[in-house]
Amino acid sequence: MSPPRLLFADTLRAAGIPHAFTTRQGGASTGPFASLNLGRGVPDDPAAVRANRQAVLQALALDPHRHVEADQVHGAAVAVVGAGDAGTSIPDVDGLAAIEPGTVLAVHAADCATMLLADPRTGAVAAVHAGWRGTAAGIAMEAVRSLTDRFGSRAHDLLVAVGPSIGPCHYEVDEPVRERLGRWGWWDAVATPNPRGRWQLDLREANRRQLVDAGVRPEHVEILDLCTYHHPDLFYSHRRDRITGRMAAVIAPRSAPPQRDPGGANPHE
What we know:
By secondary structure, this protein is of the alpha/beta class. It has helices spanning 10-14, 46-59, 132-137, 139-151, 175-181, 187-190, 203-213, 238-241, and strands spanning 6-7, 19-22, 67-70, 78-80, 89-90, 95-98, 104-109, 113-118, 125-130, 159-162, 172-173, 191-193, 199-201, 221-223, 247-251.
């Protein structure tokens, strides 16, 4: 098994925040789940999933016994978690927030947007899964609210990375989606009509605008502009393949002052 291929956000990396967006490369899974599947909710070999998760957390020097994940129901609930939640999946939420050093947060996706939020001042972090339903319900704003209300964060201090997701090039949505998302004032800026009477939705941009509406500085939102559908070698995509694995977005509160990044040739890997 080769080392997992991980992607990083420049802003979070510079702030010394332990984090990563995984790809599908470098794991033990086979078949349609090859090879770094991290999702337990698909019919993959559980032993392979455990090995994949262990490899990712080891690569990030994070404690696998402190891992907490969201159950993900395509809503807008964000749970505050800590050491007592280690090793669990929190039901009925699509976001997690924590401040206790060592707590490892994870959300999973195979086209939906994922977001990692960090407050370099307080140390608080959050991980969010946002499909179109969660976006329509305002989960990005709820994540900001969780950090400000529970940990005293200030929205303008937050650093946010929006991970790879399906891009507007391949994400066609219909009238029910337009009705739900159309209540936001920026619908016309994130959705382009197509010849089939539907819309091509930019899910990452929709969440970026929601974050800015919540008070996050535009320059503090970094988007990893890669389409999961368009890169079958790098990413799982449910819309493209239907039977497929899941990537993860992982973050943990920083337990020490920022360290100089040893880095590599590519700042995003």
